């Protein structure tokens, strides 16, 4: 269990796999029921690993870590909204845009924080 609760690589792996599953499920449309359920399992893993990292490292800059945590939850929410609305044949354009915006903000904060990678250094 320590692997899932304190390692950054476990968190990164879960969200990368979740985004790949999400994109495949979004392309498949209504036939993606099994993938959608698998994606929901990955939502839980992302929240567990992200929450563990949040509580372990947030003492350094609690506001930025809190904003990143909120951004991650919003990304998950937009992923779910896209898939559910697609399944119901409702428009998803706004949710795709919000997904991209929240993902960008969350990734930016994740790389900016001390646990992240500074690409510009």
As an assembly, this protein is single chain
- Identify the overall geometry: elongated
Number of continuous helical runs:
5
Class based on secondary structure composition and strand pairing: mainly alpha
Question: In which range does the helix fraction lie?
Answer: over 70%
Nearest-angstrom radius of gyration?
A: 15 Å
Task: Return the string of H and E elements.
Answer: HHHHH
Features:
single chain; 121 residues; mainly alpha; elongated
What can you tell me about this protein's structure?
With 121 residues, the chain is mainly alpha-helical. It has helices at 2-6, 8-28, 33-57, 62-87, 93-112. Helix 3 (33-57) packs antiparallel against helix 4. The termini are far apart. The relative contact order is 0.13.
């Amino acid at each position: 269990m320590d692997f899932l609760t304190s390692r950054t690589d476990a968190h990164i792996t879960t969200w990368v796999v979740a985004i790949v599953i999400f994109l495949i499920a979004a392309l498949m449309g209504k036939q993606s029921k099994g993938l959608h359920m698998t994606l929901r399992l990955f939502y839980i893993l992302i929240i567990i690993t992200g929450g563990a990292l949040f509580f372990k490292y947030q003492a350094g800059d609690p506001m930025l870590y809190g904003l990143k945590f909120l951004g991650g939850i919003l990304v998950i929410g937009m992923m779910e909204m896209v898939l559910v609305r697609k399944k119901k044949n409702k428009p998803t354009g706004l949710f795709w845009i919000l997904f991209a915006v929240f993902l960008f903000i969350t990734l930016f904060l994740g790389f900016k924080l001390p646990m992240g990678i500074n690409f510009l250094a």
